């Protein structure tokens, strides 16, 4: 039987290639996702392994005093006791966020990676002399007008030694400085968007500290003193409530832990898409083997007739499945590695993700082979088992009719799952029963099962009806295409389901994206009364000096700047906003629920309805906030307003803000501005453009432009999801190609007969095109319908987080269905050409 299996594989090379191809589609996405995730994870690990090079122990502000720095007195004491403590070398660190202009004069976009400023430390003073290398042609920066910059950022943005550029340091009051690049730095582990600008140590202290403290103290232990010993000795002489002492390994581990959640989510998203690809691929593999076994019914029946048992027939098919599963898994692994390399190249193009070599882990190899072999053998076993139960004489007949009773049972079970799905989805959307999101999620699973089981029953009337409409202009050719598409509804449904699943997810994401945009648009339309919104192009904080620049602009009427407040309340840190300026009630239309005015008092606070309920705050309550330095500030709740996504849960007045947040830590997130009486919007905008021209990342927008920016951010986030879904859809389309190609092989005699009685090649191609279009449109409509219901319900479950009413992206939905026509034609190109080339006499003679 093994020899029969091997000879059968060798005798049907096209069928073998198409089978391997279907397995490759199912495994490549899984392998690619795992390789890509492992590559990014290892790049992050490599990056963090280069954090704090040469550091044995480090003193930093504790979590409760973050932002204060380490006082100079601590530095002095540690220097004076170096020998006693076992310190070989000690360096202080200053750091701040910076914005740097590239050669084009525009701010360098980091793609989310850090852009930091620090002190230049010569190699003979550094704890690890080889951690940062000055490339040939460079020298140490001197004075306020010189900088060194990491080579990766300089090369990507057209900077070199001798280039003149601009730098904004931190969120302080200074305007952009004109500086000259005097050195390029080779720094291991730099990410694709990472920027590091280094100043002379004295300049860094002036720009990045309050003059009485440093950011960190890094120490290297003398020989014979372990990092743990040095840590314990230093910890014994510093204030444990204000400072934290860690070993270098602890610093690196803590740095890694800050990105653990991100990496876990990142990996979960990729593996979720890999699972989608696997499900799609599984249906393709199952469909392929169902067709192959159906084509071999006579062959298997003949084996039964000459003495082979049911078990031997099943085992022979499983052996063939094992062989092609190994080959398909190996090919899928290679394709997956290439896919991961492509994703990695795209990810390193301005996303801020770290760069590193492609990492092929044993887990990825085993996963590809496991999926290829196991999924293939399961997919082959089901139809093989079904075929082995058919009596040999009956199997030798030409009939391939569906088992009507089995189809009815399957449809009834699918209908049951559909009813359960609808109940859970409606319950989740109306917040009845279990957690809304959980209910919708379970309902989605049942809906997919209902589509799988009930798909064949739906395919017959839908494809039949659509076939009559689309096939009418083509006469008998259209009728033949419709008949071919509905003759095996199980196969039609399985082929279309791959597309159904992909477009289901596209619809859900499209509805969520449209709903987010709709919510943002409504919030801006109803909540923004200002003529202009001034913000940062990189969605970061603005330099506080922008407030003075805008306030001093001729023609400015009302102006409110929004800052960030971080303070301790009731034992934990809280984050909110501060409003500094006049005219808050006019510039930001807050719907007051308790309180006469939307103007926040200088020593007061306005709070959203949801947050007030959560904290049990009421108008008139006296709240005590504690600054980072331990000072208590009393703030009065002046009013409660309706929740809005435009602002944080609470807004604090200017006086309380200044008492709570030290000047060095203040930052401005955005500014709302309206013109003075008699000044037109165009005049004010021109003057504001002039006043902010020196700031690298400032953008001035009216409400419509601001809505466009928000929509752009949402589109950018969704683009990643759509790109991943695009791969799943590509697999689905190739699956249709594969199924049609096998269908052509299966119907070789039928096509030859039609050609023999006068059917033209063009007519053969046309019938295949129509059949493919019918299958593709069926899958698209089914996916869009289920996805629209799920997207609507999911949006309703997110209402408590501020998401508004569901918005249906009709253009996306309509475009998706229309695209299915194109997909159907494209998927049928090769199978149609192959069918048209069928030689009538050879096909008729072929047994």
From TrEMBL:
<feature type="transmembrane region" description="Helical">
    <location>
        <begin position="768"/>
        <end position="795"/>
    </location>
</feature>
<keyword id="KW-1003">Cell membrane</keyword>
<feature type="domain" description="ABC3 transporter permease C-terminal">
    <location>
        <begin position="272"/>
        <end position="391"/>
    </location>
</feature>
<dbReference type="InterPro" id="IPR003838">
    <property type="entry name" value="ABC3_permease_C"/>
</dbReference>
<feature type="transmembrane region" description="Helical">
    <location>
        <begin position="496"/>
        <end position="516"/>
    </location>
</feature>
<feature type="domain" description="ABC3 transporter permease C-terminal">
    <location>
        <begin position="723"/>
        <end position="840"/>
    </location>
</feature>
<feature type="transmembrane region" description="Helical">
    <location>
        <begin position="719"/>
        <end position="745"/>
    </location>
</feature>
<keyword id="KW-0812">Transmembrane</keyword>
<protein>
    <submittedName>
        <fullName>FtsX-like permease family protein</fullName>
    </submittedName>
</protein>
<feature type="transmembrane region" description="Helical">
    <location>
        <begin position="438"/>
        <end position="459"/>
    </location>
</feature>
<keyword id="KW-1133">Transmembrane helix</keyword>
<keyword id="KW-0472">Membrane</keyword>
<dbReference type="Pfam" id="PF02687">
    <property type="entry name" value="FtsX"/>
</dbReference>
<feature type="transmembrane region" description="Helical">
    <location>
        <begin position="265"/>
        <end position="289"/>
    </location>
</feature>
<feature type="transmembrane region" description="Helical">
    <location>
        <begin position="412"/>
        <end position="432"/>
    </location>
</feature>
<dbReference type="InterPro" id="IPR050250">
    <property type="entry name" value="Macrolide_Exporter_MacB"/>
</dbReference>
<feature type="transmembrane region" description="Helical">
    <location>
        <begin position="317"/>
        <end position="343"/>
    </location>
</feature>
<feature type="transmembrane region" description="Helical">
    <location>
        <begin position="363"/>
        <end position="382"/>
    </location>
</feature>
<feature type="transmembrane region" description="Helical">
    <location>
        <begin position="807"/>
        <end position="830"/>
    </location>
</feature>
<comment type="similarity">
    <text>Belongs to the ABC-4 integral membrane protein family.</text>
</comment>
């Amino acid at each position: 039987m093994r020899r029969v299996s091997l000879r059968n594989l060798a005798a049907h090379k096209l069928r073998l290639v198409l089978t391997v191809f279907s397995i490759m589609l199912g495994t490549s996405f899984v392998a690619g996702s795992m390789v890509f995730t492992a590559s990014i994870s290892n790049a992050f690990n490599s990056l963090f392994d280069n954090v704090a090079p040469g550091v044995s122990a480090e003193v930093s502000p504790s979590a409760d005093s973050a932002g204060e720095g380490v006082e100079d007195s601590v530095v002095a004491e540690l220097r004076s006791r170096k020998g006693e403590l076992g310190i070989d070398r000690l360096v202080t660190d200053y750091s701040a966020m910076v914005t740097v202009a590239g050669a084009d004069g525009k701010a360098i976009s980091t793609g989310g990676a850090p852009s930091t400023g620090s002190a230049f430390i010569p190699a003979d003073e550094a704890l690890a002399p080889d951690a940062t290398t000055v490339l040939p042609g460079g020298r140490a920066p001197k004075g306020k007008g010189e900088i060194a910059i990491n080579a990766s950022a300089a090369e990507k943005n057209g900077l070199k030694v001798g280039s003149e550029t601009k730098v904004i340091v931190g969120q302080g009051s200074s305007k952009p400085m004109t500086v000259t690049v005097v050195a390029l730095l080779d720094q291991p582990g730099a990410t694709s968007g990472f920027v590091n600008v280094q100043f002379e140590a004295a300049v860094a202290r002036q720009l990045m500290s309050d003059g009485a403290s440093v950011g960190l103290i890094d120490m290297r232990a003398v020989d014979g003193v372990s990092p743990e010993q040095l840590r314990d000795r230093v910890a014994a002489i510093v204030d444990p409530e204000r400072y934290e002492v860690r070993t270098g390994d602890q610093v690196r581990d803590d740095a890694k832990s800050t990105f653990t959640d991100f990496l876990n989510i990142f990996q979960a998203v990729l593996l979720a898409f890999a699972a989608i690809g696997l499900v799609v691929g599984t249906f393709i593999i199952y469909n392929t083997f169902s067709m192959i076994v159906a084509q071999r019914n006579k062959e298997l029946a003949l084996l039964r007739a000459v003495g082979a048992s049911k078990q031997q027939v099943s085992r022979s098919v499983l052996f063939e499945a094992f062989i092609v599963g190994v080959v398909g898994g190996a090919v899928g692994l290679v394709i997956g590695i290439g896919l991961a390399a492509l994703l990695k190249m795209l990810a390193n193009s301005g996303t801020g993700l770290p760069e590193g070599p492609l990492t092929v882990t044993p887990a990825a190899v085993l996963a590809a082979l496991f999926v290829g072999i196991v999924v293939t053998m399961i997919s082959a076993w089901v139809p093989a088992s079904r075929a082995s139960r058919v009596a040999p004489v009956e199997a030798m007949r030409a009939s391939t009719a569906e088992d009507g009773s089995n189809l009815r049972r399957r449809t009834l079970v699918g209908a049951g799952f559909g009813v359960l799905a609808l109940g859970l989805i409606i319950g989740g959307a109306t917040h009845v029963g279990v957690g809304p999101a959980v209910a919708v999620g379970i309902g989605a699973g049942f809906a997919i099962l209902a589509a799988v089981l009930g798909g064949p029953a739906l395919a017959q009337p839908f494809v039949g009806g659509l076939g009559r409409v689309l096939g009418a202009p083509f006469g008998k050719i259209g009728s033949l295409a419709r008949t071919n598409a509905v003759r095996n509804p199980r196969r039609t449904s399985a082929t279309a389901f791959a597309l159904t699943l992909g477009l289901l997810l596209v619809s859900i994401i499209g509805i969520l994206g449209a709903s987010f945009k709709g919510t943002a648009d409504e919030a801006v339309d109803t909540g923004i009364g200002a003529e202009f919104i001034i913000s940062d192009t990189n969605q970061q904080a603005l330099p506080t000096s922008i407030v003075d620049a805008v306030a001093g602009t001729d023609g400015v009427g009302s102006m409110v700047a929004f800052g960030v407040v971080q303070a301790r309340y009731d034992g934990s840190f809280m984050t909110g906003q501060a409003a500094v300026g006049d005219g808050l009630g006019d510039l930001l239309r807050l719907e007051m629920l308790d309180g006469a005015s939307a103007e926040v008092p200088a020593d007061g606070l306005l709070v959203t309805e949801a947050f007030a309920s959560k904290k049990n705050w009421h108008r008139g309550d006296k709240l005590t906030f504690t600054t980072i330095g331990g000072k208590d500030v009393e703030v009065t709740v002046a009013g409660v307003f309706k929740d809005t996504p435009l602002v944080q849960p609470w807004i604090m007045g200017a006086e309380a803000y200044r008492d709570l947040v030290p000047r060095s830590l203040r930052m401005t997130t955005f500014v709302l501005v309206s013109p003075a009486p008699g000044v037109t919007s165009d005049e004010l905008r021109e003057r504001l453009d002039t006043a902010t021209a020196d700031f690298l990342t400032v953008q001035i927008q009216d409400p419509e432009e601001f809505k466009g920016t928000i929509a752009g951010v949402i589109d950018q986030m969704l683009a990643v999801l759509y790109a991943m879904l695009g791969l799943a859809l590509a697999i689905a389309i190739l699956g249709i190609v594969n199924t049609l190609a096998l269908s052509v092989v299966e119907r070789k005699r039928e096509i030859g007969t039609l050609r023999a009685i006068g059917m033209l090649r063009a007519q053969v191609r046309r019938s295949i095109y129509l059949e493919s279009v019918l299958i593709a449109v069926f899958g698209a409509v089914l996916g869009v319908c289920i996805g629209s219901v799920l997207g609507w319900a999911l949006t309703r479950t997110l209402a408590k987080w501020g998401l508004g009413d569901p918005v249906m992206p009709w253009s996306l939905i309509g475009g998706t269905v229309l695209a299915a026509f194109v997909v159907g034609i494209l998927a049928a190109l090769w199978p149609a050409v192959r069918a048209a080339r069928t030689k009538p006499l050879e096909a008729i003679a072929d047994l």
